[in-house]
Amino acid sequence: MSRELLRERYEKEFEKLPDFVQKYLLYLEAIPRSTNTLYEYSKEYRRFLTWLLAEGIVQAKDITEIRLADFERLNKDKIVLYKSFLNQSPKRTFEEKNENDLAQASLGERNTHRLKVTVQRSITALRSLFKYLANEEVEEYDEQIGDYIIRPMLRRNIMVNIENGGVDASGEVRKDKIEKMLYLDSEAIDFVEYVYSGYGNTLTSRQAKTAYEKNRIRDTAILALFLGSGIRLSELVNTNVSDLNYEGLYVQVQRKGDTLDHAMISPIFIDYLQEYIEQRESLYNADDSVPALFLTKHKNVAKRMEGGSIEKMIDKYSTAFGKRTTPHKLRHSVGTMAFRKTKNLKTVSEILGQRGTSATEIYTHIVKKEKRSVINDLWT
After folding, report:
1. Which residue, 352, 293, 332, is CA-closest to 2?
2. CATH classification of 177-376 is 2.60.120.200, yes or no?
3. In sequence order, which residues have a C-beta less than 8 Å from that of residue 57 and are 6 or more positions away?
4. Which residues form the Tyr recombinase domain (predicted)?
5. pLDDT, tens digit (0-9, with 9 covering 90-100), for 146-155
6. Which of 15, 87, 305, 346 qualifies as a FRET site for 207, CA 20 to 30 Å off?
7. CA separation (Å) from 291 to 259, 301, 303, 305?
8. Which residues in 137-151 are b (16+ Cβ under 10 Å) and which e?
9. What is the pLDDT of residue 84?
10. What are phi and psi of 175, to 5 degrees?
11. What pLDDT is attached to residue 232?
């Protein structure tokens, strides 16, 4: 989804919410939080408030009329009921796109995983809101004492002892699953070359071969940018041609929190990007009025590629190559190789545009296993 469309959808969600929830979202914007985070949180708040109305727990014409006083009357039992609703609702899987750890899972297992992840996201969003309301102070007139007093917006936080209800898999299991989807060492280069020239040899229909030839330069460039920089899918989708700097070997991206950053690009992959840029205009009927770097063509009109299309494309090529992966796992591949070279989590987090090093533990896990393998084979 493009940055502009995401912002538009978020603003529509924002308008549907009560003023005290809007105040919290404005607070998150100021921190700042990414538009994607704001959009996901706003959807979760709308879902919770809609449930409160449907169950008759609060009395209002619509969710915009729900007040803080209604939240004051909530208790832990109501939140437990809401969690039960989330767990039982068949619609709870429709928004979850992250199938990164589910490559080999059955459809039923994937749905169960999506369900748990989505419940976790819902409760996390509510815990964040309630914590803010319980800590944010307001001034109000107290008739009993005849003066103004300072009090929290919400007098008690009933979410404090509510469990997230997260995914069952332990951290170690999750890391092992991630490892199986990484492209490391020469395998990454082999994969890019396979998309560039080898995949066509696996096709039998003329239609499929024509489609592949039409897009292979672009598709290879997408993989080259993922593996050459480790940027996120959303960052790649929103990249414009003007963001590329060949001389400095970097691409300007908008990180989480809407901060601009220069993501360095490995020179080994830059030629694929240059070849695409040279053919981009003729391949997709693009002119200077189309800023997006990666394009598709609809009714002979160039338009920015969306994240879902890129995910499907990578799924198709990587499955044919023999190791199914995702854009996020390609990012992990870059992080793992960077940690191998540096042994420095701070450097890795800076390369990947992360705010801290907590998200990089997967790389130490992989390197630790490699050390064990070296020691085991040292004298054999």
Report:
1. 293
2. no
3. 74, 78
4. 177-376
5. 677 788 898 8
6. 305
7. 20, 13, 9, 12
8. eeeeeeeeeeeeeee
9. 83
10. -65, -40
11. 93
Evaluated on CA atoms 157, 161, 167, 172, the torsion sign reads: positive
Let me know: does 226 contact 331? Beta carbons within 8 Å: yes
On average, the pLDDT of the chain sits at 84
pLDDT of residue 355: 72
Amino acid 263 reads A
- Residue-wise pLDDT tens digits, 192-248: 999 999 999 999 999 999 999 999 999 999 999 999 999 999 999 999 999 999 889
Pinpoint the alpha helices (H) of the chain: 3-15, 19-30, 35-54, 68-72, 76-88, 107-135, 171-179, 186-193, 206-229, 233-237, 270-284, 307-321, 327-342, 345-352, 361-376
Q: CA 28, 34, 37, 43 torsion: positive or negative? A: positive
Q: Is 301 left (phi over 0), alpha (psi -120 to 50) or beta?
A: beta
Residues 6+ apart with CB under 8 A from 125: 40, 41, 44, 45
What is the pTM for the complete model shown? 0.59
Q: Where are the domains of the chain?
A: 3-167, 177-376
Which helix (H) or strand (E) covers residue 302, if one does?
strand 301-304
Tell me what pLDDT residue 375 has.
Answer: 58
Those residues with Cβ within 8 angstroms of residue 70's Cβ, 6 or more apart along the chain or in another chain? 52, 58, 60
Give the CA distances from residue 253 to residues 227, 244, 258, 303, in Å, rounded to whole numbers and listed in that order.
15, 9, 9, 19
- What's the rounded Cα separation, in Å, for the pair 127 and 69? 18
Which of 46-55, 130-139, 203-212, 353-362 shows the lowest mean pLDDT across its residues? 353-362
Amino acid identity of residue 109, one-letter, is: E
Q: What torsion do the CA atoms of 266, 271, 277, 283 make, to the nearest 10 degrees?
A: -130
3-state SS class at 254: strand
DSSP-derived pairing of the beta strands 244-245 and 301-304 = unpaired
Name the residue with tokens 């054999």.
380
Lowest mean pLDDT of 260-274, 296-310, 344-358, name the range: 344-358
- Does the structure show a pLDDT above 60 at 364? yes
Sign of torsion over alpha carbons 342, 343, 344, 348:
positive
